[in-house]
Specification:
414 residues, mainly alpha
């Protein structure tokens, strides 16, 4: 019985923690207090539910318990006495009506925008989002960013203090503010996914836990903002890329490039969902950066093989993307697509034009792409130099294994 109750608590914590935390932050205006009483409510459930059974509405039970603990905490602490009086008046005057099903009001959107507020440093936004909305512990967030747990703990405390000091409001931006604020929220989720898709360092190429958490957050955001086409575009992009996850590594965890992937292992249901979302993202107005990127991913996923990929259309989409979100990485990817459309010499010419961009220094995919095109042109010595440069900056062991193999091929040292 105890084991089943603990499993139930874990399921509730996973599904409703963000709802509970957001509602408590909205009610009490203090992120630390909300986190503490949320944890205490979970602990109380572990004590009571094995004996009394899991309640019909566990989220509402947790909310009632957490709210009581918060009020008790405020009453005991003199520093909170004035705030409590104000909060009680405000709660009675402006508390939203409870949902008709007796569950928690979904106030996570407010928490999304608070965690991704532009007043917070970019690294803090992603960390706070993982901590508050994804429910990762501080050590888990630290592992995601490859920093010591103590360092991450300080970073999260710093972010919370900044929210408190600057009086950053827990609210959804109004219609005038939303276009300027939403991209920051989307960027946070995309950054989390990117680290999951291609880990910056470590023994594994992918961090599937992070990628799947980013998709979960994007789904929540899509439910909360169903009319925002760029939200649909972001979710589409994540799904269409993540659909290839099982084919991106071999049995030993080695990197498998797109050309060599077994496409029968791609997740077709995920591709269908993502492709449908692309249509939503690109309909009804000018395209956004995530919608265009998702359209590129869809063309890759729909092709039977690399040779059958619609490279002219992909180049055209990169031309659109470079206008929406210009960056050296976009130019790099466009050059690779041009190489597939027009031949390696055309692609290499574009890559050489990026050589002086300081933002590509230490970015392993750039010299790796040069090495590939130089190898295809029969310029083995130059390819070897490029592969060595890529090897020096590669972050994960699967990338290094792959590059060592390519280097051995061009140097004849199999």
């Amino acid at each position: 019985m105890a084991g089943r109750a603990e499993a139930s608590v874990e399921a509730v914590f996973r599904e409703e923690r963000g709802l509970l935390l957001a509602a408590l932050v909205r009610r009490f205006g203090d992120l630390d207090l909300a986190e503490e009483v949320t944890s205490e409510a979970i602990e109380a459930a572990l004590v009571h539910w094995p004996a009394e059974g899991v309640p019909p509405k566990p989220g509402a039970w947790l909310m009632t318990t957490a709210r009581r603990k918060a009020v008790d905490r405020l009453r005991r602490d003199q520093a909170y006495a004035a705030r409590l009086a104000v909060l009680q008046v405000e709660a009675e005057r402006a508390a939203p009506a409870p949902p008709s099903d007796g569950g928690l009001p979904d106030e996570r959107l407010q928490l999304f925008f608070t965690c991704a507020h532009p007043a917070l440093p970019a690294e803090d936004r992603a960390a706070l989002t993982l901590r508050c909305l994804a429910g990762l512990t501080t050590p888990e967030v630290a592992r995601a960013f490859l920093v010591p747990s103590a360092t991450m703990g300080k970073r999260i405390v710093r972010a919370k203090n900044r929210i408190r000091t600057l009086r950053i409001p827990f609210r959804v931006p109004d219609a005038r503010e939303l276009p300027g604020r939403l991209p920051g929220v989307l960027q946070v989720i995309y950054s989390i996914f990117t680290e999951g898709y291609a880990a910056s360092a470590g023994p594994d190429l992918q961090r599937l836990d992070l990628a799947e958490e980013a998709i979960r957050l994007a789904r929540i955001l899509r439910r909360l903002l169903p009319e925002e086409r760029e939200v649909a575009g972001l979710l589409a992009l994540l799904l269409l890329i993540h659909a290839r996850r099982d084919a991106r590594t071999g049995p030993d965890g080695d990197l498998v490039l797109l050309d060599d992937q077994d496409r029968s292992r791609w997740d077709r249901a995920m591709i269908e969902e993502g492709t449908a979302l692309v249509a939503t993202a690109l309909t009804g107005g000018p395209p956004g950066r995530y919608g265009v990127q998702a359209a590129i991913a869809a063309l890759h996923d729909e092709a039977a093989d690399v040779a059958g990929t619609d490279w002219p259309q992909i180049v055209a989409l990169y031309d659109v993307l470079r206008g929406l979100a210009p960056s050296p990485v976009v130019e790099l990817n466009r050059a690779v697509a041009v190489a597939m459309r027009d031949g390696p010499e055309a692609g290499l010419e574009l890559l050489e034009g990026l050589a002086a961009d300081p933002r590509l220094r230490g970015y392993s995919p750039y010299p790796a792409a040069r090495g590939d095109l130089l190898s295809r042109l029969g310029r083995a010595e130059e390819a070897a130099v490029a592969y060595r440069e890529a090897l020096a900056s590669a972050g994960t062991e699967p990338e290094r294994v792959h590059l060592r193999g390519r280097l051995a091929e061009v140097t004849g040292q199999q």
